[in-house]
């Protein structure tokens, strides 16, 4: 007998062992089809008759009741449950019960980890996108806390570096803001309105206003319902400046126009509760010099708009003003805190940072966004590894199911094993038959589990899983599939299935023909 014929015969025997016609059941298949049919009828009826009433003009519409929402949810859950039960029923109708359970375990051990890791990758990408929207890919600062005065020359030098597509200076300091009786501590960041859009993603995150309003504050009209402009310093008895008036030299510009400020969403709407055109007092604790030393400085800004980065830390603690206004207010003429760089790709930021560090020398500190947020992304990476290990236990449980299935099969098929050995089959052939059975189980589970996991991710990505924004700060569940992670998951599950066959195959190969035929 040739090698190909022998191998084909061994795989055929393994397939016949898995598909025992005497041990099949179709009850689960009928149950799954019934659940699936009821769920589809429920969703169809809601689609046709469960829409909220709407006026002919389309202006007024009733919100769907809680009962309708629960019916929609029940229908969606019913479709998923029906599909799973139907698939399990197909397995029961095609294979033995224990084989079907083993295949179903491998299916869960691949589909569930793909969904879980894709969601975690989605959170990671979403977090990176939000950080890059408010922060730069690479940040350049000076060492030894010396003043950064030669930033123009440094900016021109780094713009010539390969991979750098934008550079903008910034000046930041911790200050206090107040509108009415609601003070808050924030990070005031002065940016260059001309170069900042090439680095920061403010065009996408701004909900109201524009970066140009920082350069042209005269375009921002006063809020007619705003309180009086500022609107007096602590201890002053004179009234605050009103529109078109000047009461303090540090409150307004030389032309009498209040400078503009862009606030984070949380700061704008919930902490200060201002509107576009409203006045905001900004207090710097030690920015002014008096007869007895440093003293607080106050300046009135006009809210030009607000941005939504999607990160509570930025939306509640960050505000933008024009760079020249920040330099005047903070008493740092011509000085900046650092230079922000935008690279062609966020993954290439560490390489660009290393090249820029080599160009500038040790007088400057160059850090990528990964270094600035190392703790956060290290925690995410560890969580993903832990999730992968936990999810692998599903495939591990499925492998134990394969072990028990093959051991029972070796006991039940003792007669067939004895006949094969009596006909001349060696121990190696018997081992290969049982290994082939485990490979069949693993391949069938992977063949359904991987597409099911990918399909589930596509459905979540397409239709979304809504989340309460006040709790999770995102509108829907983010999903990002990475082929490398899916391949690692599939390979891990298949390796566990193959390892699970070794002991049953060894046990079956050691069986003597006389033991298998003793009771026949």
What does this molecule look like?
With 520 residues, the chain is an alpha+beta fold. It is 53% helix and 16% strand. It is built from 19 helices and 10 strands. The chain has a 6-stranded mixed beta barrel with strand order 2-3-8-5-7-6. Helix 4 (97-134) packs antiparallel against helix 17 (483-499). The longest helix is centred in the last third of the chain and has 39 residues, at 374-412. It is elongated and about 110 Å long. The chain starts with a helix and ends with a helix.
Mean pLDDT value: 82
Side by side, the strands of the main sheet go 2-3-8-5-7-6
Q: By helix and strand content, what is the structural category?
A: alpha+beta
Beta-sheet strand percentage? 15-25%
Overall shape:
elongated
The SSE order reads: HHHHEHEEHEHEHEEHEHEHEHHHHHHHH
Q: How many H/I helical runs?
A: 19
Amino-to-carboxy terminus distance: 29 Å
Flag low-confidence runs. 57-63, 228-250
Strand elements, count: 10
Rg from alpha-carbon coordinates = 34 Å
Helix content: 40-55%
Main sheet overview = 6 strands, mixed, barrel
Keywords:
520 residues; alpha+beta; 6-stranded mixed β-barrel; 19 helices; 10 strands; elongated
How is the secondary structure organized here?
Elements: H1 3-18, H2 27-49, H3 66-94, H4 97-134, E1 138-142, H5 151-158, E2 164-179, E3 182-191, H6 202-205, E4 206-208, H7 212-215, E5 260-264, H8 265-271, E6 279-290, E7 293-307, H9 312-317, E8 318-322, H10 323-330, E9 338-343, H11 349-360, E10 364-368, H12 369-372, H13 374-412, H14 414-422, H15 427-463, H16 469-472, H17 483-499, H18 502-509, H19 513-516
Parallel strand pairs: 3-8, 5-7
Antiparallel strand pairs: 1-9, 1-10, 2-3, 2-6, 2-9, 4-7, 5-8, 6-7
Helix pairs in contact: 1-15, 2-3, 3-4, 4-13, 4-15, 4-17, 13-17, 13-18, 15-17, 15-18
